[in-house]
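To the wet lab folks,

You asked to see what we're planning to order before we commit. Fair enough. Below is the target structure as tokens, and below that is the sequence we designed to fit it. If anything looks off to you, flag it before the synthesis order goes out.
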């Protein structure tokens, strides 16, 4: 009994040491990347993967992340955080092309990867299909983290994240079916595939919707920031676990719950202070879990592959890029004709290049049964593609965004946004100083001096904004866009206040919504 207790204590101590080692390494990377100027240009997640590889070469060993650890522990909070910050208005505009990517696109990708591998490497077709299924899903963790770091445009972010989050249902159904075929326990049945797909997606959507709306209306009953923050964490894991237990997609369940809470629940059930607190909490959770996950992914890569392994990795990576291009450019062209989504060529190009593979693909590959004779080939192909997409596509994503002119780094624009933000803040301060309540208990001279100081600062800011607009007249358009967003925010906040007070039973669509306003302008011109 004493020996077992001692062994348990030693195991806990060893696990704690490994955990602290991982956290220390991740924090070290985060700190160094901010201290060394040229490292700021490298995506943080890519630096974590490279650091993990370097530590592995130095024989600093971490524990191997199991499929359960990635899918059940890391994935739910990362998915929830991404969807909490994803605007439904941005997403719903492109639901048509996203639906094509996550259904037809996944099927094309699996076949397009499997057939060349089976033809040119001697790997059996069922195992090649298994590799294709593992690599079919673009990883939401990798993509979300990368786009957030690079400051990608909202529409591109919505397209890439929407696709990467929702195609998990399709990929998991395909993977589970192909595993059975490869192991000889199942046969290909299109009807069974369709039923499984509808079940997985439907159960995930239902569980996510019930939890999302349920928690939204629950938080409307009280104003307790810590409780509401804790409820979002419970919802993220509950949606995933319940959906999986009921035979659905945990990813789709968590994504649905996150979208509802972020776009609906946070408006009707949380005051502005609570929304900020919850957003900051999830920002920390995303940083924490991303740091651990990408460092562990990097630590899993080992040298020592032979020529056959390198050929398999090169072929798999090449087919992933080719099939990604066929899916994005082909299905986007079809979507532009059918739904009039009008996704331009630069955005399509970035959609193609941002199809990273990561933790989800690794988890699926690691879950392949040991009894499968060609399991090592699956691991080699998937690990190699995850490494190459993270290294090559992750490292070049920023420069490609700039060359495609999807993001522009303008010091004048950044400074102008800072100036008008300070003007807005000081204007609110001045409004408060002009209220009678601000004068209670204060000597008139002191109050007048503070008001004069604020007015002086406002005058200086106004002068600076005018000079910046003289240097770049396009900044006036930036100011107009910001005003449009501010007006819509005030309108939306008013509807939320009316819902909370019982004056309305649901939120009204914003007349001043920037997207709605833009579409109306386009219709008027045509």
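Sequence we intend to order:
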């Amino acid at each position: 009994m004493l020996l077992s207790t001692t062994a348990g204590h030693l195991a806990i101590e060893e696990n704690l040491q490994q955990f602290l080692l991982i956290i220390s390494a991740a924090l070290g990377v985060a700190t160094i990347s901010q201290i060394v100027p040229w490292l700021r240009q490298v995506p943080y997640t890519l630096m974590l993967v490279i650091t993990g590889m370097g530590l592995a070469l130095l024989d600093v060993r971490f524990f191997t992340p199991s499929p359960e650890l990635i899918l059940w522990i890391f994935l739910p909070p990362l998915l929830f955080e991404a969807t909490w910050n994803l605007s439904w208005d941005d997403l719903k505009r492109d639901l048509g092309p996203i639906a094509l990517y996550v259904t037809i696109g996944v099927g094309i990708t699996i076949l397009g990867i499997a057939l060349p591998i089976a033809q040119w490497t001697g790997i059996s077709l069922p195992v090649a299909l298994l590799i294709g299924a593992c690599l079919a899903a673009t990883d939401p963790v990798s993509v979300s983290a990368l786009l957030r770091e690079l400051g990608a445009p909202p529409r591109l972010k919505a397209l890439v994240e929407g696709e990467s989050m929702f195609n998990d249902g399709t990929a998991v159904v395909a993977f589970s079916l192909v595993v059975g075929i490869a192991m000889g326990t199942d046969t290909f049945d299109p009807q069974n595939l369709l039923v499984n797909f509808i079940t997985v997606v439907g159960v995930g959507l239902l569980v996510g919707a019930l939890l999302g709306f349920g928690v939204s209306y629950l938080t409307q009953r009280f104003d307790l920031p810590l409780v509401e923050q804790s409820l979002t964490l419970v919802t993220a894991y509950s949606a995933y676990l319940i959906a999986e237990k009921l035979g659905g997609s945990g990813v789709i369940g968590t994504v649905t719950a996150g979208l509802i809470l972020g776009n609906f629940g946070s408006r009707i059930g949380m005051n502005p202070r609570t929304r900020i607190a919850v957003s900051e909490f999830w920002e920390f959770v995303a940083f924490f879990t991303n740091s651990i996950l990408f460092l562990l992914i990097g630590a899993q890569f080992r040298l020592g592959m032979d020529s056959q392994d390198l050929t398999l990795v090169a072929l798999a990576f090449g087919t992933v890029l080719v099939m990604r291009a066929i899916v994005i450019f082909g299905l986007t062209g079809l979507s532009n004709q059918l739904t009039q989504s009008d996704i331009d060529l630069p955005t399509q190009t970035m959609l193609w290049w941002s199809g990273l593979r990561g933790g989800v693909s690794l988890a699926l590959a690691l879950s392949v049964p040991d009894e499968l004779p060609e399991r090592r080939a699956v691991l080699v192909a998937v690990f190699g593609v995850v490494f190459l997409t993270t290294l090559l596509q992750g490292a070049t994503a920023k420069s490609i965004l700039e060359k495609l002119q999807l993001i522009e780094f303008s010091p004048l624009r950044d400074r102008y946004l800072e100036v008008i933000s300070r003007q807005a803040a000081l204007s609110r301060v001045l409004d408060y100083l002009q209220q009678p309540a601000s004068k209670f208990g204060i000597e008139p001279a002191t109050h007048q001096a503070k008001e004069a100081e604020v007015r002086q600062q406002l005058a200086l800011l106004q002068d600076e904004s005018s000079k910046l607009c003289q240097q770049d007249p396009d900044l006036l358009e930036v100011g107009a866009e910001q005003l449009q967003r501010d007006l819509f925010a005030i309108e939306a906040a008013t509807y939320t206040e009316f819902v909370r007070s019982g004056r309305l039973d649901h939120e009204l669509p914003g007349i001043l919504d920037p997207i709605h306003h833009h579409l109306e302008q386009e219709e008027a011109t045509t």
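Structural context that might help your review: The chain has four domains: 2-41, 67-403, 411-473, 488-526. Residues 488-526 form one domain.

Thanks,
Computational group
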